[in-house]
User: Which sequence fits this backbone?
DNA sequence: AACTATTGGTTCGATTATAGAACCGGAAGG
DNA sequence: CCTTCCGGTTCTATAATCGAACCAATAGTT
């Protein structure tokens, strides 16, 4: 059993996004179809604690500095700045493209960290973006390395929501098998228009997939260049990274949703 | 009036720090002197929503990926990655030392972002650290540029907690006046042992201090080098940064605590 | 200037979610 | 085998929450 009050409170927090970072009291209450009284109480609570910040000029609320504080603890837990980030930089230099760290969370993939290349394309907007595992190289390479009994449920979700990536279950499973066997995936434009990606999986100390690293760039540039060579470099670093991560005991951040079924 | 339930919930979150990132249920309940039943309910709520993650091996809880997602929204709001970070990198290159971004929040200073130099000293641990404004160059330079009626309250807090930095109010105020006038502050070892810092203030679109930028490094290296020259460079960039920030409307994240008194 | 429609914020009694003692089943230790 | 810890659950008196009705202030309209 979970706390209804806190649940409502957290729902409020989730309304603050890159695309809508500032909310007025009434505006937010209407959107959530909640009484403005309770939204007000929750907003003040968060503000008192530093999780929200009330802009004194506009009277509107936005996310507070507390999230920067706590995110730093998470980064430290995940050894992101210490271990993962340096390797991402290396790959970025060698490939000249942006490198994306995707992590498996619940039954979705989340874009967690991006090292930008000097070149045009910027992905910063995409950080935090969640999407199902059947879409895009970074996600598919995770799905491909998941235990087979987990794959079924996720693919079923894709069929239920009529994902165009899955024409037939058997063909899709075959593709996943190939991805798992060769150790990397390539797609173009599946998650972001005109952006291609080459991805390789990361494993934890129990050899469970915990995420992936991707070389991402404009589709035309990745097509012209040697995809297989880039994939080989990427895989080398992913293996190296997995080896280090397995030593610091870095558990896969997965909820065993499908085990319960 | 704020929500007691959510307040308790947020108190739980704050127990997760860099120094103690993993908590067991009972352990946490004892520490907070709360019934383990309610702690359990709150932990499950947070876990369901992705704010906490239960390590399936140890059964212990740690902060979840949600904080990385939301912190990215905050960074975008504050234009950190877009505007502030690039300038920090520039200063880091020119000075060869680490650059620290401190923000004013409530009536404290928070180390928000650190660009590490290639050299030995690492400050990553300090990110998110809060401390009162009378301690350390990065914080003092903020205090010095605060309205005088705000300064009084903060200095009083310092005296109440017997801060060794304040021997006498009048001398301390004089020092602050000098810092404000010359535009930068220098201290050594006040916040972190054997670490010195040169700091200059940042202002928002209404010319209120919103934080500071600091060049930080081992005390001996900052002493031997030319402090004034480093300060001049730093001030130049801080002015540049303030000018840009004032255009994007970046409000000072301050609660007007002392106005209410 | 008066009227209306917003806004953020507050009050207070009926309702409902919460708090916490007592409980379970498992694991670790003696 | 017993004890003690652990994470997790159940149940009801009780305390916190909910929300209609309420301010006061601001902005736009007539």
Assistant:
């Amino acid at each position: 059993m979970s706390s209804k009050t806190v649940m409502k409170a957290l729902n409020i927090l989730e309304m603050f996004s890159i695309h809508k970072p500032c909310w007025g009291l009434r505006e937010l209450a209407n959107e959530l179809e909640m009484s403005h009284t309770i939204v007000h109480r929750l907003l003040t609570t968060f503000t008192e604690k530093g999780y929200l910040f009330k802009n004194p000029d506009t009277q509107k609320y936005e996310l507070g500095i507390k999230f920067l504080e706590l995110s730093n603890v998470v980064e430290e837990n995940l050894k992101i700045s210490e271990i993962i980030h340096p390797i991402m930089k290396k790959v970025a230099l060698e490939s000249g493209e942006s490198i994306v760290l995707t992590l498996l969370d619940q039954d979705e993939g989340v874009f967690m960290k991006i090292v930008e290349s000097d070149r045009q394309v910027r992905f910063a907007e995409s950080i935090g973006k969640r999407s199902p595992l059947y879409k895009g190289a970074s996600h598919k390479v995770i799905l491909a390395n998941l235990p087979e009994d987990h794959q079924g449920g996720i693919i079923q979700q894709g069929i239920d929501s009529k994902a165009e990536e899955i024409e037939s279950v058997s063909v899709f499973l075959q593709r996943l098998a190939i991805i798992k066997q060769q150790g990397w995936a390539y797609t173009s434009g599946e998650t972001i228009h005109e952006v291609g990606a080459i991805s390789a999986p990361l494993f934890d100390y129990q050899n469970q997939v915990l995420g992936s690293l991707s070389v991402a760039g404009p589709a035309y540039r990745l097509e012209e260049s040697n995809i297989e060579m880039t994939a080989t470099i990427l895989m080398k670093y992913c293996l190296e990274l997995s080896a280090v991560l397995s030593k610091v005991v870095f558990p896969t951040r997965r909820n065993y949703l499908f085990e319960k079924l």
